[in-house]
Design a protein that fits this description.
Length: 165
């Protein structure tokens, strides 16, 4: 059953992979069937169909909840829920609106370009998000870039200065 996952706020779907293959298998001189990328730290490990199951071992050690197919990212899996991850768009769009300047329209834009949690904004590059949005929607008002910058500041600062927001 595919369902909403409460662990999405713990991940960064844009995290860079630490390697292009299973480093543990490479070190052992072994091979794998397919790969999985951890969405918390970027660790790349071999799948459960591989004899070494390094992605699962990584979860057992770290408790990082969500992996995705690598390199294609066609699906995501939550080890804790033992299920595929489904993104609840309405809830995410509503949750993103706690950031200053982010209303329903910009929250939907953020969702469409892969931002699923306020916490995730702390690790995002506002200019890259803006560029991605323009690729998706065409020419975009530059004020959106300023909103993305304020959202990043809000998400990455413990006590944001209201005047800077």
């Amino acid at each position: 059953m595919v369902k909403n996952c409460s662990h999405l706020a713990e991940v960064d779907i844009h995290i860079e992979p630490q390697s292009q293959g299973c480093a543990e298998c490479v070190a052992m001189g072994d091979t794998w069937v397919s790969l999985r990328k951890c969405l918390t730290c970027g660790h790349v490990g071999c799948c459960n169909s591989s004899k070494n199951k390094h992605a699962l071992k990584h979860f057992d050690t770290t408790q990082h909840p969500i992996i995705e197919e690598f390199p294609d990212a066609n699906w995501r899996w939550c080890y804790i829920d033992n299920d595929y991850v489904w993104f609840d768009e309405k809830k995410i769009v509503k949750d993103l609106q706690v950031m200053p300047g982010v209303g329903p329209s910009i929250a939907k834009d953020l969702f469409d370009i892969g931002v699923y949690a306020v916490k995730q904004m702390a690790f995002m590059n506002p200019q890259e998000l803006f560029d991605e949005l323009q690729k998706l929607n065409g020419p975009t008002d530059p004020c959106v870039l300023y909103t993305f910058r304020a959202a990043k500041y809000y998400a990455s600062t413990k006590d944001p200065d209201p005047e800077l927001l």
